[in-house]
Amino acid sequence: MSSQSEIVLTKAPVPLVFGFQWSVGEMMEKFIKTLADKKILGAKCPQCGYIYVPPRWRCGKCYAKLGEKNLTELSGKGTLLSYTTAYVELDGVGNFKELDKPKAIGAIKLESADSTIFMLLGEVKPGDLKEGMKVEVAWREEPKGELADIKYFRPVKG
Ligand SMILES: [Zn+2]
After folding, report:
1. What pairs with residue 65 in β-bridges?
2. pLDDT surpassing 90 at residue 136
3. Residue 117: is it exposed, middle or buried by C-beta count within 10 angstroms (0-12/13-18/19+)?
4. pLDDT in tens, 76-125
5. Angle at CA 82, nearest 5°, toward 84 and 146?
6. Residue 132 sits in which domain range?
7. Which residues are in the CB-under-5-Å shell of ion ligand 1?
8. Into how many domains does the chain fold?
9. Is the pLDDT of residue 14 over 90?
10. Is residue 88 part of a domain?
11. Which of 25, 54, 91, 141 is within CB 3.0–4.6 Å of 97 for a Cys-Cys bond?
């Protein structure tokens, strides 16, 4: 007597969910905590003077080491270099989700910073966005030292 075994192949999706903790590093942690005081920190390279926001440990231009002593407060105002409009976003498990309302996202160069940040834009119609316009940070009512303390950037009025 022989027994027959059968291999069953399936294409049914198997959901995999991993919980993990990830350290953002001391410089980024300081950047995030300082948002509670409505302050945006950058780091100035002691060797070449390039100012990074958010701050980082190593200069990408000259490879000098940066530390807490190189942190510098930035104004929260800057220039919109470019922008785009998003109609979908990721749902956190790898799928696209259509947005109820499109979001404008801008590449912003903060005053005295050399690097660029990508932030949500608010209090402006997408048709009114212009490259080169001055923008400023709009803070959450009660900042808690989280990235979400920055609601978005909006055009500077006046
Ligand atoms: Zn440098």
Report:
1. 58
2. yes
3. middle
4. 999 999 999 999 998 888 899 999 999 999 999 999 999 999 999 999 98
5. 75
6. 26-155
7. 45, 47-48, 50, 59, 61-62, 64
8. 1
9. no
10. yes
11. 91
Asked if 112 and 76 touch (Cβ cutoff 8 Å), the reply is no
Residue 58 CA to ligand 1 centre (angstroms): 8
Tell whether 68 is covered by a domain. yes
For residue 22, report the distance from its CA to the centre of ligand 1, in Å. 26
Instruction: Please state, in angstroms and rounded to a whole number, the distance separating the CA atoms of residues 129 and 80.
Output: 9
Q: Report pLDDT digits (tens) over 39-74.
A: 999 999 999 999 999 999 999 999 999 999 999 999
Planar angle of CA 28, 104, 29, nearest 5 degrees = 5
Three-state DSSP class for residue 3: coil
Would you say residue 54 lies in a domain?
yes
